[in-house]
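Retro notes (design track)

What went well: tokenization of the new backbones is finally stable.
What didn't: we kept losing track of which sequence belonged to which structure.
Fix going forward: every design gets posted as structure first, then sequence, in one message. First example under the new rule, 208 residues:
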């Protein structure tokens, strides 16, 4: 097993074990503020009848909310099979099973086999990759109209939480590590692909 495969395996195991906690957190607290902003920005841009590609979809709460808001179909991609099990169950429970499809794997590796979509969403996913450029470039090529992201900001509290999380993960022997990348560089990369910024660095769509 090479280094990347080992890290992916650790990441998949970690998030599968935490899947129930993510689901419980959502049931108690609902969407986070940045996620609510993201959903508003996407809906304001217009998603009636749109197809979605949710990269790093986790338990699927985000794309199900967008389906309820008028999107036509969603494909969820996640490295964690445990997360996808919850996503599938949630879609079935809400009567959205026929509108959803799920793929397990590292997006950067399975991207060629994934369909394009009107909207591509990456909610707190870029911070999971040490080299974000490949993830952003690959996901941008899948977006026909809208591209929406959330990323952690470089703040003192965020860096402190990152350090604590890395220390805890090393303590349990997990090779997964979260990252904080420069938002300006990410934004410049997106704009270079012909997208226009429209909503607080959360949602963008291409010219024309």
């Amino acid at each position: 097993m090479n280094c990347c495969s080992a890290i992916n395996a650790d990441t998949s195991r970690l998030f599968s074990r935490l899947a129930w906690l993510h689901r419980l957190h959502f049931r108690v607290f609902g969407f986070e503020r940045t996620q609510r902003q993201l959903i508003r920005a996407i809906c304001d841009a217009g998603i009636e009848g749109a197809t979605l590609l949710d990269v790093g979809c986790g338990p699927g709460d985000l794309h199900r909310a967008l389906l309820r808001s008028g999107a036509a179909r969603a494909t969820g991609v996640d490295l964690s099979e445990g997360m996808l099990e919850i996503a599938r169950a949630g879609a079935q429970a809400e009567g959205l099973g026929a509108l959803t499809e799920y793929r397990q794997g590292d997006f950067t590796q399975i991207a060629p086999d994934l369909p394009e979509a009107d909207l591509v969403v990456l909610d707190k996913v870029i911070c999971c990759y040490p080299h974000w450029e490949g993830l952003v470039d690959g996901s941008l090529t899948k977006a026909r109209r809208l591209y929406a992201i959330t990323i952690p900001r470089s703040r003192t509290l965020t860096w402190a939480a990152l350090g604590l999380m890395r220390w805890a993960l090393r303590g349990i022997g997990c090779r997964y590590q979260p990252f904080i990348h420069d938002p300006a560089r990410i934004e410049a990369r997106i704009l270079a692909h012909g997208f226009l910024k429209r909503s607080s660095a959360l949602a963008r769509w291409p010219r024309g």
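Added context from the reviewer: Helices lie at 3-29, 33-45, 61-68, 81-93, 107-110, 132-140, 156-171, 183-192.
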